[in-house]
Amino acid sequence: MMQEIITKSADQNRRYKEQVNVAQYLSFTLDNEEYGVDILRVQEIRSWEPVSRIPNVPHYEKGVVNLRGSIVPIIDLREKLGIKFTDYTLLTVVVVLQTNDNNKTRTMGVVVDSVSDVINLDKTKIQDAPDFGAKVSNEFINGLVSVNDRMVILLDVDKLLKLEEPEEQEVSEN
Amino acid sequence: MSIDMSQFHQVFFEECFEGLEVMESGLLNLDTGDIDSEVINTIFRGAHSIKGGSGTFGFNEVADFTHVMETLLDEMRDGRRKVTQPAIDVLLGSVDCLRTMLASIQAEESVDSATVGMYKNALEIELSGLASESSPLVSVATPSANESTEAIPLGDAAEVESVEQGWKIAFCPYLDLLKTGNDPVRMFRELAELGQYSVTVNTRDIPAFDKLDPEECNMSWALEVVGDIPLAEIQEIFNWVEGDCELDIQPLAKKKPKAALVEKPAEPEPILPTPSSTVIEPPQITAVAVALKETVKTPSSKAEPQQSDNDPAKAAVKAANTIRVDTTKIDALINMVGEVVITQSMLTLIGENFSMDKLAQLKRGLSQLERHIRDMQQSVMNIRMVPISFVFSRFPRLVHDISAKLGKKIELKLIGENTEVDKAVVELLSDPIVHLIRNSLDHGIEMPTDRIAAGKPEIGTIELNAYHRGGHIVIEITDDGRGLDRKKLIVKAVEKGLIEDNSVLSDKQAYELIFLPGFSTAESITDISGRGVGMDVVRRNIQSLGGNIEIISEYGKGTTISIHLPLTLAIIDGQSVAVGNEIYIVPLVSIKESINITENMINKIAGKNETYRLRDRYIPVIRMHEIFNVKPANKTNSGEGVIVVVERQGVLCGLFVDELLGPQQVVVKSLEANYRRVQGVSGATILGDGSVALILDIPGLVRFSNRKSPASLKPQDSRNDARNYH
């Protein structure tokens, strides 16, 4: 049930840290779009399993699971980014990420359609996301990059997983 | 290369506070008539190790202060000084003072130098009282004192009050001293050759680094040279700088060391005079001198109890992050882990080529593993357990001080001090107990004359008893004082408008009145108790720990207050309930009863607010699936369910759930560690099947449901639930 597809290899990290301009990203798909997160933030990848629902929170916060004794919230990235919701299947995976919120490290899981690849990027090639004005929120987006002529959207894990204050959350709930 | 000493500070502080506790209990046991040298030795050792430690860590204020105490104790130990009550009082006061100092240093606050000065002064007055009495012995005392301060050679000269000869030099060079080619360091070295020498530097005038001119000398020094030295020799050293500085050379006066000290520009933290070193905070240290000058009076006994009020609590809060564990407990745990490893390897062996005939073996192995793990869990929990004497040990002092102040004669009996409780509980428990004991002291026990008139023994008794009962710890505070007067309580409560004029109350209900906010029957408000803010806070604190508090009292005979608390906060007894597909845990302490009901037993008010008739009263109903937006199980649609009657702070409320699943002990896990606080939920736990269940926070839930009236709830999003169970 709990399959770990990726573990960070320590010497690999070291090698890439030495090359300052190279960054590694884990890419995954959401409704045919390709997204990437900094691989150093990825703790593990698990298959989807039922969560315990948390009452009265925004709809994209699906609930919590038991991750080896600690309680970890699961967030649906499709819903968080406003993409149409699809049912979870056997292939649905949860990427467990480490986030930093006010100097507090949290562990959270995000639900994605599937994990694609580990990509090595030249940091200088990352472009800023174009400003869509008020139409589309790009606050979570770190930048865009092309890999094999496909566009990969790089997400800022901390901003993406910043929890809203409970007051706001009630408004969005009802 | 220097070692970062600050990593050892925490250990040092803990040792100090322990040492102080030992000293305090020793002092309280010290009988003025009959001197037990072992007790004095114990006190002395406590003071000595604090002095040594603080010297090593550079807390010279503490070291200096302790040194004076030590000198006094040393004389008591050698029998050169009689142990008198005033001396003990001064020493007790000094213990408090030390505790404050250490607590402020630990909190990285500035030390209250006025108080320190006051106590130091008092100690010295006590000491000098001796000097006139038995002066021949003074010279004996000095070498031993010097010997013991070897670890801190620079700090000791300040207190070597009994040495007759020496010079005190105040040396304030002008800014351009260095430009004239003079080097203070060289001069000080010469001074050092003359005799035992100490120096303190005043860095008060050093400007901020960006404004600092390295060629200017912004410091001044206070030097002390001890020994038989002619004035001319000292003057010779300073000959070259005479025009470039302010110089004041004075003989070190015998018996009045502090008078000399007053004139110093600054005190402790000896630093070698290199212009770049700035460490101390001179303004506050100068305050020592000022305070010393002003405080001529001995410390009033009034100041002492106040001190002891604030400090232990502060210290307890600060020391909260570490725990001392008996090594036998750790050994037991390691043993257990060894057993688990052995069992695990045995199971691996069975599993490697498993066949059905090994089934019995496998089952045996599994049950062994289960037993070992349970034992291991127990011993881990055991590590968090500390004896309740942690809290109890401070009460003899409290009772001693307060009873002396009130003029009452009170004996404190401690029973079951070794009863073990979770450390977190112990820490939160101490304030409520302090409060209850103060109440007993102030209101409970009568004045000796009243007691004799009532035919009771003159000496009142307060008994503190702790014991385990069924997974709970019970703490009883019993006094044989005047007891609670139920008539007076009721009159007072009516007066304050807390109850109706002609309400009929049972004894228990009447006694419960004292837990109401703003309730006090004390005729006069003292600084010990009577403000009427206390008991409701006590009860709230106890309840927040998941416990309860009860009063049994007989008018004229005495009062017993018993506190029931869970042994640990990490594991609670819970009742699991099903709501739709979700499982929630209701803490067992809040559950009064559970009743099977059907829909038609619920009455509506104005079409929405629902009530249930529990025997002769109506209680509000909270529908869990509505408030938590859970799709109800089919059973609820047919109108069947269970009302779990919960109580918090006397208010009853019914939780409407689908069914009860059974009681179980649950390990409390934090939701906030990775997530956030959720309304109506106090935490989470992991069930046997590995899934997560939320633990309900009953008061929070009630508040939440009041705010979120059912009308505002939208029909729940059924899709939301279905989705989770693919």
Kindly list the characteristics that best describe this protein:
heterodimer; A: 174 residues; mainly beta; five-stranded mixed beta sheet; 43% strand; globular; disordered C terminus; B: 726 residues; alpha+beta; six-stranded mixed beta sheet; 24 helices; 43% helix; 21% strand; extended
Strand content of chain B: 15-25%
Mean pLDDT across every amino acid position of chain B: 74
Which oligomeric form is depicted? Answer: heterodimer
Give the total of beta strands of chain A: 10
Name the structural class of chain B: alpha+beta
Output the structural class of chain A.
mainly beta
Residue share in helices of chain B?
40-55%
Relative helix content of chain A: 10-25%
Rg over alpha carbons of chain A? 16 Å
Radius of gyration of chain B, in Å, reads 34 Å
Largest inter-chain contact set? A-B, 29 and 34 residues
Largest sheet of chain A: 5 strands, mixed
Description:
The complex is a heterodimer of chains A (174) and B (726). Chain A is mainly beta. Chain A has helices at residues 10-18, 77-81, 157-160, 166-173; strands at residues 22-30, 33-38, 42-47, 61-67, 70-76, 93-101, 104-112, 114-122, 141-147, 150-155. Chain A contains four helices and ten strands; from the N terminus they run H-E-E-E-E-E-H-E-E-E-E-E-H-H. In chain A, strands 8-1-2-10-9 form a five-stranded mixed β-sheet. Chain A has a five-stranded mixed β-sheet with strand order 3-6-7-5-4. In chain A, strand 6 (93-101) and strand 7 form a beta hairpin. Chain B has 726 residues and is α+β, with helices and mostly antiparallel strands. Chain B is built from 24 helices and 22 strands. In chain B, a hairpin with a 2-residue loop joins strand 18 (640-648) and strand 19 (651-657).
Brief summary of the model shown:
The complex is a heterodimer of chains A (174) and B (726). Chain A is mainly β.
Question: What are the SSEs and their pairings?
Answer:
The complex is a heterodimer of chains A (174) and B (726).
Chain A: H1 10-18, E1 22-30, E2 33-38, E3 42-47, E4 61-67, E5 70-76, H2 77-81, E6 93-101, E7 104-112, E8 114-122, E9 141-147, E10 150-155, H3 157-160, H4 166-173
Parallel strand pairs in A: 2-10, 5-7
Antiparallel strand pairs in A: 1-2, 1-8, 3-6, 4-5, 6-7, 9-10
Chain B: H1 9-29, H2 37-56, H3 60-77, H4 85-106, H5 113-133, H6 138-148, E1 166-173, H7 184-194, E2 196-202, E3 220-226, H8 231-237, E4 245-251, H9 257-262, H10 282-294, H11 303-318, H12 327-352, H13 359-383, E5 385-387, H14 389-392, H15 395-406, E6 410-415, E7 420-422, H16 423-444, H17 448-453, E8 460-469, E9 472-479, H18 486-495, H19 507-512, H20 534-544, E10 548-554, E11 558-566, E12 571-579, E13 582-587, E14 591-598, E15 602-605, E16 609-614, E17 617-623, H21 624-627, H22 634-637, E18 640-648, E19 651-657, E20 659-667, E21 681-686, E22 692-696, H23 698-707, H24 718-724
Parallel strand pairs in B: 6-8, 13-22, 17-19
Antiparallel strand pairs in B: 1-3, 1-4, 2-3, 5-7, 8-9, 9-11, 10-11, 12-13, 12-20, 14-18, 15-16, 16-17, 18-19, 21-22
